[in-house]
């Protein structure tokens, strides 16, 4: 794909694998996110994956699907998964998509 | 053991000629249900809710505004499904009154409302128990609309009107109805497999046509439709955008086939992966028209 619309940055701190997504998450970002999940699950000493969506300004249902898959895969490996920051635009799409609170941070802004 | 006999889905058109007949028929319906301890949800316009609320009530009776629930008729089935699900498994027999069709609906809306009425028979074909009464105003609705109600409702009551009997559900036929051609001056963009250009084109065009406030929504809609084209519609398609009076229309054409006439009308389950694209489009749009033949598919969206 010619245009890079999604960037992913990883920051490790203790058992935390913090994954910051920036830009746009659509069908073409799905593989990149999946690769980061594999990276998290194969790295040493990761006990939780924290996904930071504060700089993600666009998501669609393919992106939401990718996040749901990531959550399922990470939790299946007995590793924690949570979305820790979210932009207003992304939160709106998640609600429209009928997600309820499935992927929303438990304590917004924390 | 033989399973208990299921009441199944009863879908009835109720023709009325004036307010008095409407109130007589609907209060009877509500009182009979409530008398048996069954829950009722009435989805009507605000004026009718007000009138009916004065005659029936209690904790078994709920009301919802059809203008909010059913502005886009594709959002009505999920609302009924939620009501039915809330009472399913508790041995209850939910009763609904729903009037999605009124004289102020545009011709396009009336076509989709008829589609909606037909799809109810498919959506609830396997319901344990659900009785739905659909009032039709014979004084103001076009005779063709009333004839259409005969075709979509296995049961008809109230004032007589002309019409052939129930059509049954030919799910495939519902998707084959033609759409009027778009005007000649539409702007188009061929896309695929990249999605960003289509989304950005949609945003620019929305602003240029005077719909800046809806640019983000249009981008999301176009992105969802284009994603379906890329994944299932031959890898790409053609996007067309045009202004229609005070509204914006958007259409995506591709060479794929849409086989499920209920697509976009089932609320995604918690944790469900996939199947959310047309659901999202329905939540954002006033009207969504899905058509599909062997030659390809088109999805046309109206954004107010």
Number of helices of chain B: 10
Overall 3D form of chain B = globular
Tell me the total number of β-strands of chain A: 4
Separation, N- and C-terminal Cα atoms of chain A: 35 Å
Number of alpha- plus pi-helical segments of chain A: 3
Helix content of chain A: 25-40%
Question: Helicity range of the residues of chain B?
Answer: 25-40%
What's the short version?
Chain A is 35% helix and 34% strand.
How is this structure best described in words?
Chain A is α/β, with parallel strands linked by helices. Chain A is 35% helix and 34% strand. Chain A contains 3 helices and 4 strands. Chain A has a 4-stranded mixed sheet with strand order 1-2-3-4, with helices on one face. The longest helix of chain A has 16 residues, at 61-76. Chain A is globular. Chain A starts with 5 loop residues before the first strand and ends in a 14-residue tail after the last helix. The mean pLDDT of chain A is 90. With 304 residues, chain B is of the alpha/beta class. Chain B has 10 helices and 11 strands. Chain B has helices spanning 19-35, 46-53, 66-69, 76-87, 107-123, 143-152, 171-174, 196-208, 215-232, 277-284; strands at 8-16, 40-44, 61-65, 95-98, 129-137, 155-158, 187-191, 237-244, 247-254, 287-293, 296-303. In chain B, helix 5 (107-123) links the parallel strand 4 and strand 5 (129-137). The longest helix of chain B is centred in the C-terminal third of the chain and has 18 residues, at 215-232. Chain B starts with 7 loop residues before the first strand and ends with a strand. The mean pLDDT of chain B is 92. Classes of the chains: A alpha/beta (110), B alpha/beta (304). Chain A binds chain B through residues 1-3, 5, 24, 26-28, 58, 60-62, 64-65, 68-69, 72, 89, 93, 96-100, 102, and chain B through 193-196, 199, 216, 219-220, 223-224, 227, 230-231, 267-268, 270-274, 276-277, 279-280, 283-284.
């Amino acid at each position: 794909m010619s245009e890079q619309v999604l960037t992913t940055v990883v920051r490790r701190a203790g058992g935390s694998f913090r994954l910051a997504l920036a830009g746009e998450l659509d069908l073409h970002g799905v593989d990149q996110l999946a690769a980061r999940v594999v990276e998290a699950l194969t790295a040493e000493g990761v006990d939780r994956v924290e996904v930071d969506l504060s700089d993600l300004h666009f998501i669609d249902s393919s992106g939401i699907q990718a996040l749901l898959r990531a959550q399922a895969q990470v939790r299946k490996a007995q590793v924690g998964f949570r979305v820790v920051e979210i932009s207003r635009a992304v939160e709106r799409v998640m609600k429209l998509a009928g997600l309820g609170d499935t992927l929303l941070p438990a304590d917004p802004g924390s | 053991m033989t399973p208990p006999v299921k009441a199944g889905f009863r879908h009835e058109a109720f023709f009325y000629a004036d307010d008095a007949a409407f109130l007589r028929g609907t209060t009877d319906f509500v009182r009979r249900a409530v008398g048996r301890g069954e829950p009722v949800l009435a989805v009507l316009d605000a004026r009718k809710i007000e009138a009916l609320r004065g005659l029936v009530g209690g904790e078994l009776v709920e009301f919802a505004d059809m203008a909010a629930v059913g502005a886009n008729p594709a959002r009505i089935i999920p609302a009924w499904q939620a009501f039915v699900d809330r009472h399913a498994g508790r041995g209850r027999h939910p009763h609904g009154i729903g009037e999605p069709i009124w004289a102020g609906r545009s011709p396009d809306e009336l076509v989709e409302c008829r589609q909606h009425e037909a799809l109810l028979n498919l959506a609830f074909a396997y319901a344990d128990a659900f009785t739905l009464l659909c009032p039709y105003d014979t004084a103001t609705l076009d005779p063709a609309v009333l004839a259409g109600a005969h075709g979509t409702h296995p049961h008809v009551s109230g004032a007589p009107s002309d019409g052939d009997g129930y059509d049954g559900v030919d799910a495939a036929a519902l998707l084959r109805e033609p759409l009027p051609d778009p005007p000649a001056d539409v702007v188009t963009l061929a896309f695929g497999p990249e999605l960003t250009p289509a989304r950005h084109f949609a945003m620019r065009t929305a602003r240029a046509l005077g719909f800046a406030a809806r640019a983000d929504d249009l981008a999301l809609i176009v992105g969802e439709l284009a994603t379906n084209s890329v994944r299932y519609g031959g890898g790409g398609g053609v996007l067309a955008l045009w202004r229609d009076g005070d509204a914006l229309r958007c259409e995506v054409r591709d060479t794929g086939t849409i086989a499920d006439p209920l697509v976009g009308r089932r609320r995604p389950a918690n944790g469900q992966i996939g199947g959310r694209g047309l659901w999202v489009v329905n939540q954002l749009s006033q009207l969504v028209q899905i058509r599909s033949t062997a030659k390809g598919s088109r999805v046309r969206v109206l954004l107010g």
